[in-house]
Amino acid sequence: MKHKAFILIIFFIVSLFMSVTTNTLESAYKNIAEMNVLQNKNSISFEILGAKSISGTNFITALDAGDDIIIQKNGLILGPYYGKAIYLKSGHSLQVPLISGRFVTSQDMGQGQKVAVIGKNLEYLTFMENDQEYIRYDDEDYNVIGKLGHSNRSSSFDDLFILNLDQLLLKSDNLQYYSDLWTIYNLNSSTEESFYHLNNQIKNINNQTSLTQLNTQTSNSYLEELLTNRLFSLSITGVIIILLLMNILNTTNFYIESKRREIGIRKAVGASNWNISVKILKDYISLAIVAYLIAQIVYIGVVRFKITPLIFGDSINLFSTTAGFVLVLVVGCLVAVVPVVQSIRLQPNEIIKGG
C-alpha cells in the first residue's frame, strides 16, 4: 500500500508541476502574441533630436503630410501603469482584444476629441461625467472608448492605457519631454521610406529638428526575447523533459522492484510472462491516471478560486497539460519495459527469495 501511495504522490507532483509549467509558458506566449499586434517586425525605433525646437502642433502637421503610417509614443506613465500614444493614418487599424467598446482608429485623429482605451486594472481610475467615462492623464481628461484585454483571464493589456497621439501633443510648445521611445511602421509599404519622408517633413518645418533611427526592429523586453528565441525555448523544454524523465525513471524502477514478490507468486501459480507484464503496466498506468486527475482537480480549484495566481495563473490550459501528461505516461511505460522484462526472466524461487 505504501508503494502505491508513493507512486501516487510522485505522479501527483509531476502532473501539478507540468500544469503550472505549461500554463506559464502558454500564457506567456499568448500575451506576447497579443502584444505583438501593437508592434511590427519592420518597426523602426527612433528619437527626436532638437525636440525642444518643435511644437506638438508642428509635429502633428508633419505626420498629417506624411505617408500612411502608424506612430507610437511609448513610455507614458500613469501611477503604476504604462501607456502609449498612437497615431494612425488613412484607414490603418489594429485588432486588439477588447472586453468592451472599440480601439482607437484613424478617424479619431484630428477630430479634437481626446480618447483612450484602457486595461481592466485601470478602471478604478476612471470617473463619469455627462454619462461618459473618462480617465485623466497629465491634467487632461480622455474619453474612455474601450476596455482592453479579456474578461476571463489576465493579459499584458490589463495594465496598459493608449491615448490618441494628436491630442496628447497639441498642447505642447515643444517636444523635449517626448523626445524618445518612438516607433514607426507602415503596414502597406516600406517603413524605411516612410521614416525617411517623415524626417524630411520635420526638417522642412524646423531645420534644427530631426529624427534619428535607433534600430530597425521594435525592441522587446528581455523576457520576450528569451521566450521568442527558439533555441532558448528548446533548451528550457529539454531541461524540463530530462528532469521529468529522471523522476519517472526512478519512480518506475521503485514501483517494479516493489512488484517483484508479486511477480514471483504469479509465475509460481502458472501465469504467463505476457499476462504478468500487462497486469503490472495496467496497475502502473491506473495509478498515474488517478494521480493526474487528482492533480488536475487541485489545479482547476486553485485557478478557479484565484489562490496564489502569481504561481498558478488565472486561466486553465488543459490541452497542453494533457498532451504533456500523455507524453510522460508513454515514456514511463517505455522506461518500465526494461525492469519488467528483467524481473519476469527470473525464476519464482529467485524472485521470492530476493524479495
Secondary structure topology:
Layout: H1 2-35, E1 44-49, H2 56-65, E2 70-78, E3 81-88, E4 98-101, E5 115-119, E6 127-129, E7 132-137, E8 140-148, E9 160-164, H3 165-169, E10 182-185, H4 191-205, E11 210-215, H5 222-228, H6 230-258, H7 260-268, H8 273-304, H9 309-312, H10 318-345, H11 348-354
Parallel strand pairs: 3-9, 5-8
Antiparallel strand pairs: 1-10, 1-11, 2-3, 2-10, 4-8, 5-9, 6-7, 7-8
Helix pairs in contact: 1-6, 1-8, 1-10, 2-4, 6-10, 7-11, 8-10
Helix content: 40-55%
The total count of helices amounts to 11
Low-confidence stretches: 216-223
Q: Radius of gyration, Cα only, in angstroms?
A: 30 Å
Task: Write a concise synopsis of the structure shown.
The protein is an alpha+beta fold and 355 residues long. It folds into two domains: 2-32 and 225-354, no CATH class; 40-217, no CATH class. It has helices at residues 2-35, 56-65, 165-169, 191-205, 222-228, 230-258, 260-268, 273-304, 309-312, 318-345, 348-354, and strands spanning 44-49, 70-78, 81-88, 98-101, 115-119, 127-129, 132-137, 140-148, 160-164, 182-185, 210-215.
Notes on the structure:
51% of the residues lie in helices and 18% in strands. The chain is α+β, with helices and mostly antiparallel strands. The chain has two domains: 2-32 and 225-354, no CATH class; 40-217, no CATH class. A hairpin with a 2-residue loop joins strand 6 and strand 7 (132-137). It is elongated and about 100 Å long. The two termini are 16 Å apart.
